[in-house]
Design a protein that fits this description.
The protein has 360 residues and is of the alpha/beta class. The chain folds into two domains: 148 residues, FAD/NAD(P)-binding domain (3-Layer(bba) Sandwich), CATH 3.50.50; 117 residues, 3-Layer(bba) Sandwich (FAD/NAD(P)-binding domain), CATH 3.50.50. It contains nine helices and 23 strands. The strands form six sheets. Strands 1, 2, 5, 6, 7, 8 and 19 form a seven-stranded mixed β-sheet that branches. The relative contact order is 0.17. The structure holds flavin-adenine dinucleotide. InterPro entries: FAD/NAD-bd_sf, FAD/NAD-binding_dom, NADH-Q_oxidoreductase, Pyridine_nucleo_diS_OxRdtase_N. Pfam families: Pyr_redox_2. This is Pyridine nucleotide-disulfide oxidoreductase family protein. It comes from Pseudomonas linyingensis. Keywords: FAD, Flavoprotein, Oxidoreductase.
Length: 360
Amino acid sequence: MTAAFDLLLVGAGHAHLGVLRLWAGGQRPRGRIALICPEPYVWYSGMLPGLLAGRYSAGQCRIPLQPLCAAAGIEWVAAAVTALEADTRTLQLSSGEALHGRWLSLNPGSLPSAPAQEGAGMELLPVKPFPAFIARWQDWQRPPEPLAILGGGAAGVELALAMARQVPSLALISAAPLLSGHPPALRQRALRHLQAAGVQVHERCAVERIRGDVLMAAGQPVWQGQRLVLATGASPLPWLRESGLACDGKGFVTIAPTLQSLSHPQIFAAGDCASLADTPRNGVYAVRQGPVLAGNLAHALNGEALAAYQPQRHALALLADGQGGALLSWAGLTAEGTVLGRWKDWLDRRFMRRHAAPER
Ligand SMILES: Cc1cc2nc3c(=O)[nH]c(=O)nc-3n(C[C@H](O)[C@H](O)[C@H](O)COP(=O)(O)OP(=O)(O)OC[C@H]3O[C@@H](n4cnc5c(N)ncnc54)[C@H](O)[C@@H]3O)c2cc1C
């Protein structure tokens, strides 16, 4: 028996958090609506480096989902989607249940990719999903061992700066120059901080396979050890690629500015899982999609015209430096310092306050 809903939200990503926040504030459309998400908490990626560096407690970095869903007046289904049939809008869940939605909205994020692995000499720890990552990182503290991080984007750099002082040695390995989507001055600033933290940085080093306990790039060994964190940027979730939804060459769901799938307009997609021109995959853009998505889901349920999401031209990036400060990149400008760290802390805490369920 397939349970039927007017709208099913898949994943508690940044855009869906914005939707729930607005609905909790009184803008919920009518109909039977549920959110499907396996975890009882949403971990906020902006504060994850601070959690790892010991600057925040776990409770400060996660949003309890059940109270937020209750405040928004929707059901929470505690399961993961394992398959989607786009033509019938039917979702298979890890619980064995199947759910059907008249409308669907997808915001389940992405996963880091891993190089091919020969043998079991190295343990790979993807940075997402966050709950599994945090739990295993705690195990890795007892006792700490040499560590490598694969991925030289903002996440890899922040993780390296947060973890460097907690392990005997740390290598940061990047296929491109570090922070390649940002101004070159940000890379210089990050390199100075990484050097001060004792991180060995390998740039332009595309690891193509893991042979036993050795990382291989261009046929040469580049690092030997038993623990590897994967912060390799977004790769698509396999079940989305196999759903029948139109996808780009990498397997991300192609969407129109209304955030509807190009092939299946009754399915919306936002955040990392979606592919839209001029829209990088990071939390800033996913957050900004939230209000447009909330409006369009209500319009769709009411049979009204939809609005277009317009990606902003510049996004503020504030990277935690692992010592309470932050590095800033915005519109080609860069800066750093403890004042920026305090500002980042204020912005992050405000995000958490905004998404906490209102007191009843
Ligand atoms: C260490 C780190 C730091 C970062 N810092 C920043 C930053 O400071 N600023 C910034 O802009 N970006 C940052 N990012 C990037 C940012 O995390 C993502 O781009 C952002 O989270 C957008 O993701 P999303 O909204 O698509 O989904 P996510 O936030 O990844 O959420 C996905 C949700 O879907 C759920 N889910 C996953 N699979 C399923 C399934 N099969 N069924 C049901 N639910 C599912 C998950 O449990 C989760 O609740 C950082 C990333 C990392 C790794």
